[in-house]
Amino acid sequence: MKLALGADHGGAEQKEALRTHLEAQGYEILDFGTKRSDESVDYPDYALAVAHAVAAGEADLGILVCGTGIGMAIAANKVRGIRAATVTDVDAARLARQHNNANILALSGRFTPLTVNIEIIEAYLSAEFEGGRHQQRLDKIAAAER
Ligand code: RB5
Question: Rounded to two decimals, what is the model's pTM?
Fold first, then answer.
């Protein structure tokens, strides 16, 4: 599975650690930056790069990290076909996949510890979309995009 990663300065440190962790787990990583936590950058630049890669099928799923995970999700969700979820706990991570078929996870690099973000990613990646009534709801969201 190929994962697209992106972060702003608020998430850069965790993104680097997550990249190392995910590569060790055997995931192929497309890293859109940024690497530095000491240089202020604009989160939409990274959110949109990851969102376009996922929407185009260049990556299967995306993981974004900013200070809160909120701005990244707002920006990524402007790209057609993207369902980005800001997640700060393991249960929401599982449900973001099972019910919402989220194709991007947006994480907080400032308020969620790295160990918890690793658990969140594991819960998200190991869950499966349940389809059925949830697909019907996603179809309504997709119709609103058209
Ligand atoms: C950057 O300071 C911060 O606003 C950003 O990382 C993020 O939290 C936005 O939602």
Answer: 0.98
